[in-house]
RNA sequence: GCCCCUGUAGCUCAGAGGAUAGAGCGUCGGCCUCCGAAGCCGGAAGCCCAGGUUCGAGUCCUGGCAGGGGCACCA
């Protein structure tokens, strides 16, 4: 049950009722906000609606609040409704309402927190979208974790979600990749050739060339660059996929840029833009009149060499997105794409499509700190710490957590040494330990020979400890957190929620023991039920973050 | 020069226009004979500046100041 939503409706009804009998003047009803007061003495929920109505109603806020309360229906989950200066309406829940959250969690299981915002709607989340020219690095990882976490939240909100990866498998970068691979192969064959300035420096291409050399000796020397490009790009793509799988990100669709050429969409898009009068030729290049949509200058679509810029297939790709029937498209971009994202949407508008279903989520950079020094990252220079290296050293769970532990607007300094350190300072373990401690209770319960299902009909009214109730109060917030994540498209909220939940759990664990000589059996059973729900909730929250819920650590 | 992001505790960050601004790290001091101390309990310490909107501003607007990122016929 979403108490805040129900309260919002009930208060709105009370206002209308008061208006009907003349206790309040007529006015258009604004949305009735229900919030959680910081201070528990103000109740479990509060509404400032009377304060906001003061001007409309031309009455004192306190008076309005009193009128609303007088006309308010009293559902059974409310223990108390009161008015507090300067005009808040405070609601207190019954303890029974909090206690039954235990059963709500156990009934819903891994579906707990589910909301219906996106029921029947299709959403797409695009992220990472790195070219298959090198390993996934830490900046792309941030976008990937943000995107995957948002995808999980969108699913929890009822959306049918497609997680998509768009990659450039053609063009100049791929040619350079092929050339690099061929040169490395020739070097292994003993030929005296050197990399050019534009070629990729990374060790991984030497490894790929060596694979070819070991399998085929020098018999491939006559093969064209495109052969090496195809081989390298497939190998690197597979490596990227594997890295992402290791961090628990599995894409539904890998969208190849090349397919936009094969299907003709790129040139169709250009034709259509031309037909609509948004294209002109200058200096031997083809230009997009993006200034018509507020851009500061026009942009080149086709270079004087006849090659399209990256912008042209990007527009075609988003044109296709617009045609694929998504109700919501989320594009996640790193700082290097902040400026270009709007241009693509201008292109889609120029093609006659609305773009209000597309929402771009931007995030700031990740700087990697190792041994107290910043590690500069560049794929071409081959100087980076790849996601794979981090996975080996740190593991998937801490990487995932740290990547969403900050708002996307905030740059992240990822200190490798600190993340490796498995100390009590690490919030990842603090959260996971809550799940481990729950598991420990059930392990111990079985060890002393008790019935593992003895809590089936436990008397939940015995759960009256303030720690238990505070935890359940927080448990009720999960749907609100999911709603916040999908409406704001901000994945970091779940990380903070998880930490807060754990910080309410641990004192409960200390104070509300199950197996203790001084705890009567009926209370043991109620608490066992409580911890069963707590364990389920932590598993659920960790799953929303794409993290594991360990039984032991 | 233009665009974007950010200025909240010593440090790193939350804060959905509302009541006495929250965490973590660090710091100071306590707690293991019964479910994992990777834990718990307690103390000190803070909204960049100036205007404005509002009954009410850390939050919104304008202008400063400071830091980061971006401004290609690269992607």
Care to describe what's here?
The chain is an alpha/beta fold and 553 residues long. Among the domains are: 3-93, Arginyl tRNA synthetase N-terminal domain (Gyrase A, domain 2, 2-Layer Sandwich), CATH 3.30.1360.70; 99-116 and 424-544, Isoleucyl-tRNA Synthetase, Domain 1 (Orthogonal Bundle). Helix content is 48%, strand content 12%. The chain has 21 helices and 14 strands. The strands form 4 sheets. The chain has a 5-stranded parallel β-sheet with strand order 6-5-4-10-11. A 3-stranded antiparallel β-sheet has the order 1-3-2. It has a 3-stranded antiparallel β-sheet with strand order 7-8-9. The radius of gyration is 29 Å and the shape is flat. It binds one RNA strand of 75 nucleotides through α2, β8, β9, α17 and α19.
Entry keywords:
alpha/beta, three-stranded antiparallel β-sheet, 14 strands, Isoleucyl-tRNA Synthetase, Domain 1, Gyrase A, domain 2, RNA-binding
């Amino acid at each position: 049950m979403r108490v805040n939503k129900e309260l919002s409706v009930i208060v709105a009804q009370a206002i209308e009722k008061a208006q009907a009998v003349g206790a309040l003047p007529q006015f258009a009803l604004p949305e009735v906000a229900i919030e959680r007061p910081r201070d528990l003495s103000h109740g479990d929920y509060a509404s400032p609606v009377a304060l906001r109505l003061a001007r409309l109603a031309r009455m004192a806020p306190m008076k309005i609040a009193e009128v609303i309360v007088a006309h308010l229906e009293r559902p059974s989950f409310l223990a108390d409704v009161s008015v507090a200066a300067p005009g808040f309406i405070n609601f207190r829940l019954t303890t029974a309402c909090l206690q039954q959250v235990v059963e709500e969690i156990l009934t819903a299981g891994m579906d707990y927190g589910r909301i219906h915002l996106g029921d029947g709607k299709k959403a797409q989340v695009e992220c990472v979208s790195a070219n298959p020219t090198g390993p996934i690095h830490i900046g792309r990882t941030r976008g990937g974790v943000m995107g995957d976490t948002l995808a999980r939240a969108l699913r929890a909100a009822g959306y049918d979600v497609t997680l998509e990866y768009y990659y450039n498998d053609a063009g100049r970068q791929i040619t350079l990749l092929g050339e690099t691979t061929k040169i490395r192969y020739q070097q292994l064959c003993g030929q005296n050739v050197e990399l050019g300035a534009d070629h990729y420096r990374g060790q991984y291409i030497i490894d790929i060339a060596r694979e070819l050399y070991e399998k085929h000796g020098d018999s491939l020397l006559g093969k064209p660059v495109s052969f090496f490009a195809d081989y390298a790009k497939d190998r690197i793509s597979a490596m990227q996929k594997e890295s992402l799988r290791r961090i628990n990100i599995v894409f539904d669709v890998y969208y190849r840029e090349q397919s936009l050429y094969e299907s003709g969409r790129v040139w169709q898009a250009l034709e259509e833009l031309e037909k609509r009068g948004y294209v002109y030729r200058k200096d031997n290049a083809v230009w997009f009149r993006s200034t018509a949509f507020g851009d500061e200058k026009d942009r080149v679509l086709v270079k004087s060499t006849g090659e399209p810029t990256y912008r042209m297939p990007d527009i075609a790709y988003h044109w296709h997105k617009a045609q694929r029937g998504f109700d919501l498209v989320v594009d996640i971009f790193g700082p290097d794409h902040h400026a270009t994202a709007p241009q693509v949407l201008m292109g889609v508008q120029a093609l006659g499509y609305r773009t209000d279903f597309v929402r771009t989520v931007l995030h700031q950079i990740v700087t990697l700190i190792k041994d107290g020094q910043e590690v500069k990252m560049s794929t071409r220079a081959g100087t980076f710490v790849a996601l794979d290296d981090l996975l080996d050293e740190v593991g998937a769970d801490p990487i995932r957590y740290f990547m969403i532990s900050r708002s996307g607007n905030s740059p992240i300094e990822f200190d490798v040494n600190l993340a490796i350190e498995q100390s009590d300072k690490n919030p990842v373990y603090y959260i996971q330990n809550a799940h481990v401690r729950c598991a420990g209770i059930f392990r111990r319960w079985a060890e002393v020979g008790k019935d593992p299902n003895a809590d089936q009909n436990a008397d939940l009214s015995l759960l009256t400890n303030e720690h238990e109730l505070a935890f359940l109060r927080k448990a009720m917030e999960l749907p609100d957190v999911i709603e916040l994540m999908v409406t704001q498209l901000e994945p970091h909220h779940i990380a903070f929620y998880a930490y807060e939940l754990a910080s309410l759990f641990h004192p409960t664990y200390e104070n509300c023991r199950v197996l203790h000589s001084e705890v009567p059996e009926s209370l043991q059973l109620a608490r066992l039920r409580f911890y069963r729900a707590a364990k389920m909730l932590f598993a659920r929250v960790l799953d929303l973050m794409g993290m594991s819920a360990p039984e032991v650590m």
